[in-house]
DNA sequence: TGAACTTCCGCCGAAGGTCGAACAAAGCCG
DNA sequence: CGGCTTTGTTCGACCTTCGGCGGAAGTTCA
């Protein structure tokens, strides 16, 4: 039995996380002998997973050879499917984007049409990046509805007609496919990209609807049925008259979602159809719209105040279409959360707008794929094969 | 860093979890050779961690020698400190209770007095069980307030005067001491004792106050500041007049806690001081009390409905003093949760009374200690020493 | 009852992995 | 230019693990 763990997968994890860039670092961190580390690194280099760069800076002796992930030869894809759009990002193994694209695409056209479109875009992006199809190792897909993560099958999604129980991964041959809810992958993208130092994060997406992705101990929390984070249908007080498409009334989404704000603006004589119209009105300085957005922030804050007490996150990130006017939204959210949550939970809590922006979902989906590929178990399997 | 699979610690984990009771089981589960397993088991036996029992049942050949945790020579303690009571359970390494006791004890007397009392009870219980003090390997303590788990220091607990930032573990020499919130240890006790098959569990304690312990992926979720699960101060709609000791109004605890129900009964001319009095009235068949308890269940259910959407647990366990009249409390909770939560989240959700009862906290605290001691890292350290 | 069969467990030589010492490489410093 | 420091590789010693073999301990069946 080895006194310390340190399989090839562990070594690669340290390299990919940036914890170690030289063989000496690895020896120090793992406690293994330098010769053993060299052997591991050699195996990783031989498999094309790691490469050496030019020598680094000397600290008084022979300069170490820097190690990093070998970014050629592999590719990963992150796919963000929304109700009306499709974004695909091709990434290398370090998470850098090689190429990306965006189209209008109705998810309601069904899985065969949509996935064929994705497949075509993948070929195009691979071409742009100059990599063969065989380089594609894994892909992640975020979809606007609940998914049984283990099988990659949508689970009674309300706005994805034709997708229920469709085995998405089987559509793509020879590549691992991970399918998850769009808000989950956005949370993952935001966490890995801008908040990697935190352990407990909530990502709140405020668009047409309202959803939440949960990062606990650095990992996505999906819950028992994969429906965790569905905060759009939490009840808010004082709006019993607002009916929701789910059949209940006073749902958060029915009073504070982009669609709800647009409807109320229309009632006030300001024609608005979607969250985008609301954003446009706010940016044009319309005070009615501004007031409604801020009020929506307060309502969202009321729900988040409960969740802060319950979950005790370090940071809440607000994204989605309406976060383009985040100053007003966040003002309402902060006001309510800091008033209604317990001091111990809010003392070190920060509530910030998304730093990753429109690409959070595609990036997060890609990261899901990369982390799956780089998991120690999978790497050990590859190296020992 | 992933631990090396098949270490002595992993072998012991399989034995303690009941996943393997023979050397053959271990070889099958770990994939290691039978001879290697024998060597591991020998080391564990030599260290007094595992013992062989008489042969088990034959499956057609030589019957295997059964293995189990060696329950002599070690002892673990679980301590449940409440506002006005102290329970101590002495357990062997398999989690069976060897001896236990209960006293009235005011936590407000301060850490020196209370912990000295605990220390004395420990000696007494060790005497009853016929084990020397040196057999005590670790202890867990549940306290009625927030704790910084890593250091074992209470963190501004409202009902524990004199305990703020007190380094509890240092009071006990030569033994590992883990300190956690009482609701957390109750959740752990309930999960390990009665719901070990589930991954995501919420334990709701309804007593004088209201709290919640969270089990996610089989582990306690404590949050960023260790204050997760503090649902007593979540706002419920329609009770703006109810002031709470936290300074806000309409807190769940202020309208549905045992103290709140007692106060309202008193207003109705039925003198009641505590949750215990409320239970007595309900058990005596008082319809006013029954109605209030059921209404409290509805209010708790309103909050839980939100948390079910957010967290998506498999099971909600209701415990605490008021759960002695759980049929009425649960009726209100179930009614609201199943009406207000999303079908996907409630479809496989069960809401049940505590199966572990009054001892959940002390048991959970002991289990916290045992699992700490049995963690693969700790066992490998012991075996390789 | 006894022989054949099955399963369990310890022993031992072979194979393979890890370690640390020794050595070579590469840059810094006086 | 020769010592000093740090890095990386080579190699034999050592240790662990593996798997076959044989003995142990029951079951099944004639």
Automatic annotation (TrEMBL), chains A, B:
Residues 8-56 form the HTH marR-type domain. This is ROK family protein. GO terms for molecular function: DNA-binding transcription factor activity. It holds the Pfam family MarR_2. SUPFAM superfamilies: Actin-like ATPase domain (SSF53067), Winged helix' DNA-binding domain (SSF46785). CDD domains: HTH_ARSR. Transmembrane segments: none annotated. It comes from Nonomuraea phyllanthi. Belongs to the ROK (NagC/XylR) family.
């Amino acid at each position: 039995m080895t006194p310390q763990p340190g399989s090839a997968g562990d070594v690669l994890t340290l390299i990919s996380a940036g914890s170690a860039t030289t063989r000496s670092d690895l020896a120090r961190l793992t406690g293994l002998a330098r010769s053993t580390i060299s052997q591991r690194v050699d195996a990783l280099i031989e498999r094309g997973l790691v490469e050496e760069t030019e020598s680094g800076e000397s600290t008084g002796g022979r300069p170490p050879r820097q190690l990093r992930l070998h970014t050629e030869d592999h590719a990963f894809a992150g796919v963000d499917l929304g109700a009306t759009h499709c974004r695909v990002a091709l990434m290398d193994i370090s998470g850098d984007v090689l190429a990306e694209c965006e189209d209008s695409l109705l998810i309601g056209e069904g899985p065969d049409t949509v996935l064929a479109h994705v497949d075509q875009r993948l070929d195009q992006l691979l071409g742009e990046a100059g990599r063969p199809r065989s380089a594609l190792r894994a892909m992640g897909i975020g979809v606007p509805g609940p998914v049984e993560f283990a099988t990659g099958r949508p689970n009674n999604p309300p706005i994805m007609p034709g997708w229920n129980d469709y085995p998405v991964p089987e559509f793509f041959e020879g590549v691992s496919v991970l399918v998850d809810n769009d808000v989950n992958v956005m949370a993952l993208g935001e966490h890995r990209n801008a908040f990697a130092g935190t352990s407990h994060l909530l990502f709140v997406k405020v668009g047409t609807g309202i959803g939440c992705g949960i990062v606990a101990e650095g990992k996505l929390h999906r819950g028992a049925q994969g429906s965790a984070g569905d905060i759009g249908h939490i009840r808010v007080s004082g709006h019993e008259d607002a009916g929701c498409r789910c059949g209940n009334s006073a749902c958060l989404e029915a009073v504070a979602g982009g669609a709800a704000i647009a409807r109320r603006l229309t009632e006030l004589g300001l024609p608005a159809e979607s969250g985008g119209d609301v954003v446009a009105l706010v940016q044009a300085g319309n005070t009615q719209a501004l007031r409604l957005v801020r009020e929506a922030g307060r309502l969202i804050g009321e729900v988040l105040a409960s969740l802060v007490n319950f979950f005790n996150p370090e940071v809440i990130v607000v994204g989605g279409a309406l976060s383009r006017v985040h100053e007003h939204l966040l003002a309402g959210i902060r006001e309510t959360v800091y008033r209604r949550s317990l001091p111990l939970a809010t003392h070190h809590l920060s509530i910030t707008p998304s730093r990753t922006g429109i690409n959070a979902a595609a990036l997060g989906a890609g990261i899901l794929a990369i982390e799956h590929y780089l998991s120690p178990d999978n790497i050990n399997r590859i190296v020992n094969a």
